[in-house]
Amino acid sequence: MRIAQVAPLIESVPPRRYGGTERIVSYLTEELVRAGHEVTLFASGDSLTSAALEAMCDTGLRLTSGPVDPVLYHLLMLEEVRKRAEDFDVIHAHVDLLHYPVLRAHRGQCLTTLHGRLDLPAAHRLYSNFADYPLISISDHQRTPMPPVNWAATIHHGLPKDLLPFNPKGGDYLAFLGRISPEKRPDRAIAIAARAGMPLKIAAKVDRADQAYWEDMIRPMVEANPNVEFIGEIDERQKATFLGNAAALLFPIDWPEPFGLVMIEAMSCGTPVIAFSRGSVPEVLEDGVTGYLVDSVEEALERVGDLSRLDRSTIRRTFERRFSAERMAKDYEAVYQRLAGTRETAPALLRSPKPELRLVGTDAVHDAIR
Protein backbone atom coordinates (compact mmCIF):
# COMPACT_ATOMS: atom_id res chain seq x y z
CA MET A 1 0.00 0.00 0.00
CA ARG A 2 0.99 3.63 -0.53
CA ILE A 3 0.88 5.23 2.92
CA ALA A 4 1.57 8.79 4.03
CA GLN A 5 2.57 9.31 7.64
CA VAL A 6 2.01 12.94 8.70
CA ALA A 7 4.00 13.73 11.83
CA PRO A 8 4.11 16.74 14.16
CA LEU A 9 6.97 19.13 13.35
CA ILE A 10 7.87 20.07 16.93
CA GLU A 11 10.40 17.24 17.21
CA SER A 12 12.26 15.10 14.69
CA VAL A 13 11.09 11.56 13.94
CA PRO A 14 12.29 9.89 16.08
CA PRO A 15 12.91 12.67 18.62
CA ARG A 16 16.40 13.16 19.95
CA ARG A 17 15.12 12.97 23.50
CA TYR A 18 11.59 13.60 24.78
CA GLY A 19 8.66 13.19 22.37
CA GLY A 20 6.16 10.36 22.62
CA THR A 21 4.10 10.99 19.46
CA GLU A 22 7.11 11.36 17.19
CA ARG A 23 8.60 8.21 18.67
CA ILE A 24 5.49 6.18 17.90
CA VAL A 25 5.34 7.59 14.36
CA SER A 26 8.92 6.42 13.86
CA TYR A 27 8.31 2.90 15.17
CA LEU A 28 5.17 2.52 13.05
CA THR A 29 6.80 3.91 9.91
CA GLU A 30 9.79 1.58 10.13
CA GLU A 31 7.60 -1.49 10.70
CA LEU A 32 5.41 -0.60 7.71
CA VAL A 33 8.48 -0.20 5.47
CA ARG A 34 9.79 -3.53 6.76
CA ALA A 35 6.45 -5.12 5.86
CA GLY A 36 6.87 -3.97 2.25
CA HIS A 37 4.63 -0.92 2.11
CA GLU A 38 5.52 2.24 0.17
CA VAL A 39 5.66 4.82 2.96
CA THR A 40 6.21 8.57 2.73
CA LEU A 41 6.96 10.42 5.97
CA PHE A 42 6.07 14.11 6.19
CA ALA A 43 8.26 15.41 9.03
CA SER A 44 11.16 17.69 9.91
CA GLY A 45 14.31 17.46 7.82
CA ASP A 46 16.45 16.08 10.65
CA SER A 47 14.25 12.98 10.89
CA LEU A 48 15.84 9.55 10.35
CA THR A 49 13.79 7.01 8.42
CA SER A 50 13.93 4.25 5.83
CA ALA A 51 10.74 5.68 4.29
CA ALA A 52 10.71 8.45 1.70
CA LEU A 53 11.18 11.63 3.74
CA GLU A 54 9.35 14.81 2.77
CA ALA A 55 11.12 17.48 4.83
CA MET A 56 8.73 20.24 5.88
CA CYS A 57 11.30 22.25 7.85
CA ASP A 58 15.03 21.93 8.46
CA THR A 59 14.86 20.74 12.07
CA GLY A 60 12.29 19.99 14.73
CA LEU A 61 10.73 23.34 15.60
CA ARG A 62 11.62 23.04 19.28
CA LEU A 63 15.29 23.29 18.28
CA THR A 64 14.82 26.14 15.78
CA SER A 65 16.42 29.41 16.85
CA GLY A 66 14.46 32.63 16.70
CA PRO A 67 10.69 33.18 16.71
CA VAL A 68 8.70 30.28 15.25
CA ASP A 69 4.96 29.86 14.68
CA PRO A 70 4.34 26.09 14.56
CA VAL A 71 0.87 26.54 13.04
CA LEU A 72 2.36 28.13 9.90
CA TYR A 73 4.72 25.21 9.32
CA HIS A 74 1.99 22.64 9.95
CA LEU A 75 -0.41 24.34 7.54
CA LEU A 76 2.28 24.41 4.85
CA MET A 77 2.83 20.70 5.40
CA LEU A 78 -0.87 19.90 5.23
CA GLU A 79 -1.26 21.84 2.00
CA GLU A 80 1.55 19.74 0.52
CA VAL A 81 -0.20 16.58 1.68
CA ARG A 82 -3.44 17.81 0.12
CA LYS A 83 -1.74 18.42 -3.23
CA ARG A 84 -0.32 14.90 -3.18
CA ALA A 85 -3.36 13.13 -1.73
CA GLU A 86 -3.96 11.01 -4.83
CA ASP A 87 -0.45 9.58 -4.51
CA PHE A 88 -1.57 7.64 -1.43
CA ASP A 89 -4.03 4.92 -0.53
CA VAL A 90 -4.03 6.07 3.09
CA ILE A 91 -3.07 9.36 4.71
CA HIS A 92 -2.32 8.72 8.39
CA ALA A 93 -2.23 11.96 10.39
CA HIS A 94 -0.74 12.42 13.87
CA VAL A 95 -1.29 16.18 14.22
CA ASP A 96 -4.44 16.11 16.34
CA LEU A 97 -7.09 18.03 14.37
CA LEU A 98 -5.16 20.58 12.30
CA HIS A 99 -5.68 18.65 9.07
CA TYR A 100 -9.47 18.40 9.33
CA PRO A 101 -10.46 21.47 7.25
CA VAL A 102 -7.55 21.08 4.81
CA LEU A 103 -8.11 17.39 3.98
CA ARG A 104 -11.88 17.22 4.21
CA ALA A 105 -12.24 16.29 0.53
CA HIS A 106 -9.97 13.29 1.23
CA ARG A 107 -11.40 12.24 4.58
CA GLY A 108 -12.29 8.78 3.25
CA GLN A 109 -8.60 7.92 2.88
CA CYS A 110 -7.51 9.91 5.94
CA LEU A 111 -6.93 8.17 9.27
CA THR A 112 -6.27 10.17 12.43
CA THR A 113 -4.59 8.83 15.56
CA LEU A 114 -5.46 11.00 18.55
CA HIS A 115 -2.42 11.05 20.83
CA GLY A 116 -3.55 13.53 23.48
CA ARG A 117 -6.27 14.21 26.01
CA LEU A 118 -9.79 14.79 24.70
CA ASP A 119 -11.49 16.39 27.70
CA LEU A 120 -10.56 19.96 26.77
CA PRO A 121 -13.01 22.88 26.38
CA ALA A 122 -14.62 23.11 22.92
CA ALA A 123 -13.28 19.68 21.88
CA HIS A 124 -16.81 18.26 21.89
CA ARG A 125 -18.02 20.93 19.45
CA LEU A 126 -15.07 20.56 17.12
CA TYR A 127 -15.10 16.78 16.87
CA SER A 128 -18.88 16.87 16.37
CA ASN A 129 -18.34 19.07 13.30
CA PHE A 130 -15.89 16.55 11.83
CA ALA A 131 -17.54 13.36 13.05
CA ASP A 132 -17.09 11.57 9.71
CA TYR A 133 -13.28 11.39 9.95
CA PRO A 134 -12.08 7.85 10.87
CA LEU A 135 -10.30 8.01 14.23
CA ILE A 136 -7.92 5.80 16.20
CA SER A 137 -7.83 5.98 19.99
CA ILE A 138 -4.69 4.84 21.80
CA SER A 139 -6.74 3.52 24.72
CA ASP A 140 -10.42 2.86 25.31
CA HIS A 141 -10.42 5.31 28.22
CA GLN A 142 -9.20 8.11 25.95
CA ARG A 143 -12.57 7.98 24.16
CA THR A 144 -14.61 8.69 27.31
CA PRO A 145 -15.23 12.44 26.87
CA MET A 146 -15.86 12.29 23.11
CA PRO A 147 -19.18 12.81 21.31
CA PRO A 148 -20.37 10.16 18.81
CA VAL A 149 -17.64 10.01 16.16
CA ASN A 150 -16.27 7.54 13.63
CA TRP A 151 -14.01 5.35 15.76
CA ALA A 152 -12.11 2.89 13.56
CA ALA A 153 -10.27 1.07 16.37
CA THR A 154 -8.35 1.35 19.61
CA ILE A 155 -4.68 0.55 18.95
CA HIS A 156 -2.27 0.51 21.87
CA HIS A 157 1.23 1.77 21.27
CA GLY A 158 4.12 -0.61 20.65
CA LEU A 159 7.93 -0.61 20.77
CA PRO A 160 10.54 -2.52 18.74
CA LYS A 161 11.39 -5.63 20.73
CA ASP A 162 15.13 -4.94 20.50
CA LEU A 163 14.91 -1.26 21.44
CA LEU A 164 15.24 -1.56 25.23
CA PRO A 165 16.95 -4.78 26.32
CA PHE A 166 15.66 -7.02 29.09
CA ASN A 167 17.46 -6.70 32.43
CA PRO A 168 16.71 -9.77 34.60
CA LYS A 169 18.12 -8.29 37.81
CA GLY A 170 17.13 -4.64 38.02
CA GLY A 171 18.59 -2.48 40.77
CA ASP A 172 17.97 -0.76 44.08
CA TYR A 173 16.49 2.59 43.09
CA LEU A 174 13.10 3.89 42.00
CA ALA A 175 12.79 5.74 38.69
CA PHE A 176 10.68 8.64 37.43
CA LEU A 177 10.81 9.34 33.68
CA GLY A 178 8.90 11.94 31.70
CA ARG A 179 8.12 15.62 32.20
CA ILE A 180 8.24 17.82 35.27
CA SER A 181 4.61 18.98 35.29
CA PRO A 182 1.73 19.09 37.79
CA GLU A 183 -0.23 16.29 36.08
CA LYS A 184 2.77 13.93 36.14
CA ARG A 185 3.14 14.47 39.93
CA PRO A 186 6.91 14.12 40.51
CA ASP A 187 6.16 15.39 44.03
CA ARG A 188 4.37 12.10 44.72
CA ALA A 189 7.36 10.14 43.42
CA ILE A 190 9.66 12.04 45.78
CA ALA A 191 7.32 11.43 48.72
CA ILE A 192 7.07 7.69 47.98
CA ALA A 193 10.83 7.25 47.70
CA ALA A 194 11.54 9.32 50.81
CA ARG A 195 9.12 7.32 52.94
CA ALA A 196 10.36 4.02 51.49
CA GLY A 197 13.96 4.97 52.25
CA MET A 198 14.98 4.22 48.65
CA PRO A 199 16.97 6.31 46.18
CA LEU A 200 14.94 8.03 43.47
CA LYS A 201 16.37 9.01 40.09
CA ILE A 202 14.41 11.55 38.07
CA ALA A 203 15.06 11.72 34.32
CA ALA A 204 12.77 14.44 33.03
CA LYS A 205 12.55 17.54 30.87
CA VAL A 206 11.30 20.88 32.12
CA ASP A 207 9.19 22.69 29.54
CA ARG A 208 9.08 26.46 29.57
CA ALA A 209 5.43 26.30 30.63
CA ASP A 210 6.40 24.26 33.70
CA GLN A 211 9.47 26.27 34.72
CA ALA A 212 7.70 27.97 37.63
CA TYR A 213 6.39 24.61 38.90
CA TRP A 214 9.94 23.25 38.81
CA GLU A 215 11.51 26.25 40.52
CA ASP A 216 8.83 26.79 43.16
CA MET A 217 7.88 23.23 44.10
CA ILE A 218 9.92 20.36 42.69
CA ARG A 219 13.45 21.72 42.77
CA PRO A 220 13.21 22.57 46.51
CA MET A 221 11.93 19.03 47.18
CA VAL A 222 14.85 17.54 45.24
CA GLU A 223 17.37 19.68 47.09
CA ALA A 224 15.82 18.82 50.46
CA ASN A 225 16.02 15.04 49.84
CA PRO A 226 19.56 13.64 49.58
CA ASN A 227 18.20 10.33 48.24
CA VAL A 228 16.79 12.09 45.13
CA GLU A 229 18.95 12.60 42.05
CA PHE A 230 17.73 14.83 39.21
CA ILE A 231 19.34 13.68 35.97
CA GLY A 232 17.44 15.80 33.45
CA GLU A 233 16.38 14.82 29.93
CA ILE A 234 17.90 11.58 28.60
CA ASP A 235 18.17 9.92 25.18
CA GLU A 236 17.20 6.41 24.06
CA ARG A 237 20.59 4.88 24.89
CA GLN A 238 20.55 6.30 28.41
CA LYS A 239 16.92 5.25 28.84
CA ALA A 240 17.78 1.54 28.49
CA THR A 241 20.21 1.72 31.40
CA PHE A 242 18.07 4.08 33.45
CA LEU A 243 14.95 1.88 33.30
CA GLY A 244 16.67 -1.49 33.19
CA ASN A 245 18.66 -0.87 36.36
CA ALA A 246 15.65 0.37 38.35
CA ALA A 247 13.78 -1.66 40.95
CA ALA A 248 10.55 -0.08 39.69
CA LEU A 249 9.21 2.82 37.68
CA LEU A 250 6.95 5.22 39.56
CA PHE A 251 4.07 6.58 37.46
CA PRO A 252 2.12 8.68 39.99
CA ILE A 253 0.00 10.64 37.50
CA ASP A 254 -2.92 12.92 38.37
CA TRP A 255 -4.64 13.29 34.99
CA PRO A 256 -6.55 11.14 32.45
CA GLU A 257 -3.44 9.69 30.78
CA PRO A 258 -4.27 8.71 27.15
CA PHE A 259 -1.68 5.90 27.13
CA GLY A 260 1.57 6.28 29.06
CA LEU A 261 4.42 5.17 26.79
CA VAL A 262 6.95 5.10 29.61
CA MET A 263 5.07 2.19 31.23
CA ILE A 264 5.71 -0.15 28.31
CA GLU A 265 9.28 1.13 28.01
CA ALA A 266 9.84 -0.05 31.59
CA MET A 267 8.06 -3.34 30.88
CA SER A 268 10.37 -3.94 27.90
CA CYS A 269 13.29 -3.89 30.36
CA GLY A 270 11.44 -6.23 32.73
CA THR A 271 11.03 -3.39 35.22
CA PRO A 272 7.72 -3.32 37.13
CA VAL A 273 5.58 -0.18 37.32
CA ILE A 274 3.81 1.29 40.34
CA ALA A 275 1.15 3.55 38.86
CA PHE A 276 -1.82 5.56 40.02
CA SER A 277 -4.98 4.11 38.50
CA ARG A 278 -5.94 7.02 36.24
CA GLY A 279 -6.88 7.20 32.57
CA SER A 280 -5.49 4.36 30.48
CA VAL A 281 -3.32 2.90 33.24
CA PRO A 282 -5.60 -0.07 34.09
CA GLU A 283 -5.64 -1.01 30.37
CA VAL A 284 -1.87 -1.01 30.07
CA LEU A 285 -0.76 -2.34 33.45
CA GLU A 286 -1.78 -5.80 34.69
CA ASP A 287 -2.07 -5.49 38.46
CA GLY A 288 0.12 -8.05 40.21
CA VAL A 289 1.79 -9.12 36.94
CA THR A 290 3.56 -6.15 35.33
CA GLY A 291 3.27 -3.90 38.36
CA TYR A 292 0.75 -2.51 40.80
CA LEU A 293 -2.23 -0.17 40.50
CA VAL A 294 -2.55 2.22 43.44
CA ASP A 295 -4.75 5.13 44.51
CA SER A 296 -2.60 6.87 47.13
CA VAL A 297 0.95 7.52 48.24
CA GLU A 298 0.36 5.19 51.19
CA GLU A 299 -0.74 2.35 48.93
CA ALA A 300 2.22 2.96 46.61
CA LEU A 301 4.55 2.80 49.61
CA GLU A 302 3.06 -0.55 50.58
CA ARG A 303 3.53 -1.88 47.04
CA VAL A 304 7.20 -0.90 47.01
CA GLY A 305 7.59 -3.58 49.65
CA ASP A 306 5.88 -6.12 47.39
CA LEU A 307 8.15 -5.69 44.35
CA SER A 308 9.98 -8.96 45.03
CA ARG A 309 6.74 -10.82 44.27
CA LEU A 310 6.86 -9.76 40.63
CA ASP A 311 8.80 -11.76 38.03
CA ARG A 312 10.81 -9.64 35.61
CA SER A 313 10.82 -12.38 32.95
CA THR A 314 7.02 -12.46 33.02
CA ILE A 315 6.93 -8.68 32.65
CA ARG A 316 9.16 -8.89 29.58
CA ARG A 317 7.07 -11.67 28.01
CA THR A 318 3.91 -9.65 28.61
CA PHE A 319 5.49 -6.69 26.84
CA GLU A 320 6.43 -8.85 23.85
CA ARG A 321 2.91 -10.26 23.59
CA ARG A 322 0.95 -7.03 24.03
CA PHE A 323 3.13 -4.04 23.19
CA SER A 324 5.52 -4.77 20.33
CA ALA A 325 5.80 -2.41 17.34
CA GLU A 326 5.13 -5.39 15.07
CA ARG A 327 1.73 -5.97 16.72
CA MET A 328 0.96 -2.24 16.53
CA ALA A 329 1.78 -2.10 12.81
CA LYS A 330 -0.38 -5.15 12.05
CA ASP A 331 -3.30 -3.54 13.86
CA TYR A 332 -2.89 -0.41 11.76
CA GLU A 333 -2.53 -2.44 8.55
CA ALA A 334 -5.92 -4.01 9.21
CA VAL A 335 -7.51 -0.55 9.47
CA TYR A 336 -5.66 0.68 6.38
CA GLN A 337 -7.04 -2.25 4.38
CA ARG A 338 -10.58 -1.41 5.47
CA LEU A 339 -10.11 2.24 4.52
CA ALA A 340 -8.66 1.38 1.12
CA GLY A 341 -11.48 -1.10 0.46
CA THR A 342 -14.12 1.45 1.39
CA ARG A 343 -12.53 4.02 -0.88
CA GLU A 344 -12.43 1.63 -3.83
CA THR A 345 -16.10 0.72 -3.47
CA ALA A 346 -17.34 4.28 -2.84
CA PRO A 347 -19.46 5.90 -5.59
CA ALA A 348 -17.27 7.65 -8.12
CA LEU A 349 -18.87 11.05 -7.46
CA LEU A 350 -17.83 10.86 -3.80
CA ARG A 351 -14.21 10.23 -4.62
CA SER A 352 -11.78 12.97 -5.51
CA PRO A 353 -11.17 13.00 -9.26
CA LYS A 354 -7.79 11.95 -10.60
CA PRO A 355 -5.68 14.88 -11.79
CA GLU A 356 -5.67 15.39 -15.54
CA LEU A 357 -2.28 14.76 -17.16
CA ARG A 358 -1.31 17.20 -19.90
CA LEU A 359 1.55 16.07 -22.11
CA VAL A 360 3.54 19.28 -22.12
CA GLY A 361 6.91 17.65 -21.67
CA THR A 362 8.55 14.73 -19.91
CA ASP A 363 9.27 16.68 -16.72
CA ALA A 364 5.68 17.86 -16.41
CA VAL A 365 4.33 14.32 -16.76
CA HIS A 366 6.68 12.98 -14.13
CA ASP A 367 5.74 15.83 -11.79
CA ALA A 368 2.03 15.11 -12.25
CA ILE A 369 2.22 11.39 -11.47
CA ARG A 370 4.94 11.58 -8.83
From TrEMBL:
Keywords: Transferase
Any one GO MF annotation of this record: glycosyltransferase activity
Domain Glycosyltransferase subfamily 4-like N-terminal: 18-126
Start and end residues of each Glycosyl transferase family domain: 168-299
PANTHER family found in the cross-reference section: BLL5217 PROTEIN, GLYCOSYLTRANSFERASE
Protein's recorded name: Glycosyl transferase group 1
Natural source organism: Xanthobacter autotrophicus (strain ATCC BAA-1158 / Py2)
